[in-house]
Design brief:
The chain is mostly helical. It is 57% helix and 0% strand. The radius of gyration is 13 Å and the shape is globular.
Length: 87
């Protein structure tokens, strides 16, 4: 059963965010999530406080759920931001 659920979200992180995390991403976040499912790297450039960290946390959750035993590098400008905001 779990593998069936995992397969459903494998190539659709937007669906994962909506149904599992119960969050409605902004249009640009949905576009970035879709790009992430199709490309090995995605870069986001924007101002402060627009939802980049939320996008990163959703992406990490989606990837961990759909790809067991994966490794995901996560970055932030400071160690405090990595520990206190992302995690």
């Amino acid at each position: 059963m779990l593998t069936t659920v995992m397969r459903r979200f494998l190539d659709d992180p937007v669906l994962f965010v909506r149904e599992i995390l119960k969050v409605e991403p902004d249009a640009w976040q949905a576009e970035a999530l879709t790009a992430l499912a199709k490309n090995p790297r995605v870069a986001i450039r924007s101002g402060h406080g627009v939802g980049k960290t939320a996008l990163e946390s959703w992406s990490v959750c989606w990837f961990l759920f759909t790809r067991p035993f994966c490794k995901i590098p996560c970055t932030a400008p400071t160690i405090r931001q990595l520990y206190d905001i992302l995690w």
